[in-house]
Amino acid sequence: MSSIAVLGCGNIGLSIVEGLISKDKKNTRKLYATRRNPASLKGLESKGVVVGSDNLKAVKNAKFIIVAVKPYRVVELLREIAPQLKKEHVLISVASEVSIDQIKAAIKKDIPVFRVMPNTASSIGESITCISSKNASAAQTAEVSAIFETIGETVVIDENLMEAATILGACGIAYVLRFIRAMIQGGIQIGFDAATATKITTQTVKGAAELLLRKGTHPEQEIDKVTTPKGCTITGLNEMEHQGFSSSLIQGIVKSFEKIEK
Ligand SMILES: NC(=O)c1ccc[n+]([C@@H]2O[C@H](COP(=O)([O-])OP(=O)(O)OC[C@H]3O[C@@H](n4cnc5c(N)ncnc54)[C@H](OP(=O)(O)O)[C@@H]3O)[C@@H](O)[C@H]2O)c1
Fold it and tell me: How close are the terminal C-alpha atoms of the chain, in Å?
């Protein structure tokens, strides 16, 4: 299998490396991981990962180059590695708000470039990673999708939807967690201690998501099953809507999108 270099092994970079390790127990794929201060990555060495701060060396030895530094460092890093990039390389950026055209302008090489957007659930193998590209073949797209399937699910989208993907998939983690926090607070007010309210809420949220994922139903079909006429569920739901529940969520998503588009 082709080798992979992850340049900028922080939160997201490390979760990608850990996902790749967990799905490739026999170490069939060579992995390289860099950051400027690589001491915190030393634990990866016992799992067969080549760890260091030399980006050029990692690029020289790998086929897939995953750039996972902060957005404001991307161009500087790309200029550093550009002399080492050959036509066999496939370049993948996970940085938000850095377009494929900006990446191509920085490297000045005619190689396939992918722009992808995972989320922080990548650390437990439950990311949704949106993938877009320019000049990539179907085979290369399949290979890149396979890399990110090690940290969760993937979806291939047009690059012009990448900002929307950042809002719904990456920022989405925060929206859902805020919803969970509010539900826990409600649970405490109606009688549970925090730990029990958290356990009931988190498993309920997981169960609701799994219902849709496994059965492919629309949320409202599942809601209909728990709303008895004149019952407590519909009474609470309607009160939430009167207070602007769905509307505030949609407006928040749109505001986040307007902010990223500026
Ligand atoms: N966190 C998220 O939810 C999320 C989701 C999707 C996409 N992203 C994107 O992922 C990227 C990384 O985010 P993050 O949260 O993982 O940031 P992070 O934890 O700060 O990781 C970035 C890493 O890059 C290293 N680095 C900086 N300059 C470097 C260089 N010249 N060569 C090699 N390594 C270098 C840093 O380590 P040293 O200081 O030791 O070099 C740091 O560990 C961002 O572009 C972000 O837009 C993040």
Answer: 41
H or E, element range at 146: helix 138-148
Residue of minimum CA distance from atom 13 in ligand 1 = 70
pLDDT in tens, 83-136: 999 999 999 999 999 999 999 999 999 999 999 999 999 989 999 999 999 889
Question: pTM score, two decimals?
Answer: 0.93
pLDDT one-digit tens code per residue, 171-214: 999 999 999 999 999 999 999 999 999 999 999 999 999 999 99
Give dist(CA 65, CA 61) in Å, integer: 10
Q: Whose CA is nearest to atom 15 of ligand 1?
A: 11
Are the folds of 4-115 and 166-261 the same? no
- Give 241 Cα–ligand 1 centroid separation in angstroms: 39
Task: Out of 6, 9, 12, 66, give the residue to mutate to test ligand 1, the one with the largest number of ligand atoms within 8 Å of its CB.
Answer: 12
Task: Mention the CATH class of domain 4-115.
Answer: alpha beta
Q: Where are the domains of the chain?
A: 4-115, 166-261
Please report, to the nearest 10 degrees, the dihedral formed by the alpha carbons of residues 75, 71, 121, 240 taken in order. Answer: -150
CATH architecture type of domain 166-261 = Orthogonal Bundle (1.10)
